[in-house]
Design brief:
86% helix, mainly alpha
Length: 63
Amino acid sequence: MNWKRKLTSRKFWLALAAFVSGLIVAFGGAQSTADTVSGVLLQGAAVVGYLLAEGLTDAAGKE
């Protein structure tokens, strides 16, 4: 499995956020909590994607 590709995939992060927020609501959590957790996951995805992209760019520049 290509983890770099998975971690930079917006579809992966959206699916993960939807799954986690769905679990929160299913187990009795508030919708506002699910929205907050989903937002935090998507913000984290943006940071991870940026860091991986910059790392790959830097690595390609050294070769």
